[in-house]
Amino acid sequence: MTYDGLVLAAVVAELKKWIQGGPIQNIRQHNDTDITLDIRNNGKSYLLFMSVDAKFARIHTTASNLPVPKTALNFCMLLRKYLKGAFIASVEQAGFDRVVKIHTEAADGNRNTLILELMGRHSNLILVSDSGRILGAAKNITASVSRYRQVLPGLEYMPPPGGTKADPVTITREEFESLRRDGLGESPAVDEIKRWLVAAFSGVGPFLAEEILLRSGDNPTPDSVRDALQGLRQTVTENEYSPRLITDDRGAAVYAYPISVKQLPAANQHERISINETLDTLYRDLIRRNEYDTVYSSLETAVRRSIAWREQMLKDAEKALLEGEKAERYKQFGELILAGIATLEKGQNKAQVTDYYDQEMPVIDIPLDEKLTPKENAERYFRRYRKAAEGADAAIDRQKELGTEVKILETAQEKLPSAVSADALKALRKMLVERGLLRAEPQHEKAGKRETPEFGTAKIRRFMSVDGLEILYGENSQSNDYLTTKVARPNDLWFHARSVKGAHVVVRTANKPDRVPPTTLRQAAEVAAKNSDARHSSLVPVDYTLKKFVRKPRAAAPGYVIYEREKTVDVTP
Questions:
Q1: 3-class SS at 152?
Q2: β pairing state of 493-497 and 99-105
Q3: Residue 559 zone, left/alpha/beta (φ > 0; ψ -120 to 50; rest)
Q4: What's the rounded Cα separation, in Å, for the pair 181 and 175?
Q5: For 148, what's the count of Cα atoms within 13 Å in the CB-facing half-sphere?
Q6: What is the model's pTM?
Q7: Spatial separation of the C-alpha atoms in residues 71 and 514, rounded to whole Å
Q8: Nearest one of 388, 391, 409 to 399, comparing CA atoms
Q9: φ/ψ of residue 475, rounded to 5
Q10: Could you give the angle at the alpha carbon of 316 between the alpha carbons of 415 and 301, nearest 5°?
Q11: Which residues of 399-411 are buried (b: 16+ CB within 10 A; e: fewer)?
């Protein structure tokens, strides 16, 4: 995913229309990095989500009511003190940079600015007073962290480094030529132009630089690049955005971008109405997949190491069994040494004795420790006898136990690729931990950083339709109840197999139910049919309607609802 200056420009353009002039009704901080502002404007409610996560820093409106800690975090309390009840006076992007400023004004005239800096692991959310002094920040930056720029309460706010870069939207022809002379040679190669675009212009990353080059013709030159930048200027100044949800060849969402792009296949670019809603859909999917990949990698490594350790223990058990075969001979050596002790003395490295345990009674050499007396050498062999005999007995039992454990772990290893969610992987790990096959993961999380599942304890599945729309469904009656009453929005589409028990299925429509393609409608209906008591039927009627026409009667059992204004589609599970 790329979140560059063009993406932010499109987001800000929508926010100006939606939330500018509206009051901030509530502020919620979900963990150390994520905050949501509840805003009411023009008869609608908006949830403005901001994150300074090192990997997923972003701003967009969201449809998700994310959970919060029981006790509000300090920065959340600070924001509530200064911003709750204040009106959003304006929303602006700092040039074309990845910095957005939300100016607020309270009823008493007090003005403050919430500044979000989207800078990867250096991202931050900073509250600044009207006088330019820092009131607080999501991340306090001391001199030990950055000698150039500190972010601490009471200090004057300084913009992040890189503010000297040119704005590609407002740059004049003369300024462009000056930058060109300073940064490019006479006949620069394409890669050189791309690096120059990233280095010289604010808000331009590798993705946008590549797009500018592709819009500059087959053989890009500085002049054709200048013309492409002119097209970028028109897109931004005229708000000529056409949001796209971009998927890979497997259908997984990988980008949300405010314009169609030339560097990716057109078939993978799905047109959307809003860049904010597209980003919300994308990041939910990205974070879900990132959590899955993290849990999968951790579990796969733990299982692999656990198998390797037990295989080594099996080898050790095999050695113990081989040593056990020698146990009786060690005992015989001890007794033979004692039988001939009168002829032995300390300092000898071997004892020549008659082996009475052999019918032919040959004279044999028994190795001795020169530092021990004959009696002590005999006792040493008796100890080796006891250790080998006991070790062999233990190895037999341990071999069986280890063999069973390796089979269980290998079965778990085979199941890993078929696990469809991070929760399934966590359940598998929990089972292995409870059986003593894996160690429990250490808990290093700070209070307030602990992540709570988006749907709490409800078991709600999520996946993308072939058209890039989000489909959710519950796995049991309690989860169905939560999905329909707490998660689904009024204009989302709601599906259920007719007249039988089954899953509630919701298609998130971004408030545009009439834009949902027929392929997604059928796909959602098939999910409802497959997860119903009619799953074995050859043809299943599935009803669907807007969620606002679905209601739960008072005191009804979990998952029981009444709906109206439905349409019906017949599908094969």
A1: coil
A2: unpaired
A3: left
A4: 10
A5: 4
A6: 0.74
A7: 41
A8: 391
A9: -100, -10
A10: 30
A11: beebeebbebbee
User: 198: which 2 tokens?
Assistant: 């990233």
Both structure tokens of 52: 């300074």
Angle at the Cα of 404 from the Cα atoms of 402 and 407, rounded to 5 degrees: 110
Rounded to whole angstroms, how far apart are CA atoms 454 and 285? 12
With vertex at residue 289, the alpha carbon angle to CA 284 and CA 291, rounded to the nearest 5 degrees, is 95
93: left (phi over 0), alpha (psi -120 to 50) or beta: beta
* Closest alpha carbon to 539 in 493, 507, 497, 501: 497
> Tokens 């280095």 label which residue?
199
Read off the tokens for 434: 């409870």
Write out the chain's pLDDT in tens, 573 residues: 899 999 999 999 999 999 999 999 999 999 999 999 999 999 999 999 999 999 999 999 999 888 999 999 999 999 999 999 999 999 999 999 999 999 999 999 999 999 999 999 999 999 999 999 999 999 999 888 888 899 999 999 999 887 789 999 999 999 999 999 888 877 889 999 999 999 999 999 999 999 999 999 888 888 899 999 999 999 999 999 999 999 999 888 999 999 999 999 999 999 999 999 999 999 999 999 999 999 999 999 999 999 998 888 888 877 777 777 777 788 888 888 898 888 888 999 999 888 888 888 899 999 999 899 989 988 988 888 888 777 777 778 778 888 889 999 999 999 999 998 899 999 999 999 998 888 877 654 444 444 456 777 889 998 888 777 889 999 999 999 999 999 999 999 999 999 999 999 999 988 889 989 899 999 999 999 999 999 999 899 999 999 999 999 988 889 999 999 999 999 998
Give me 326's structure tokens. 């020698």
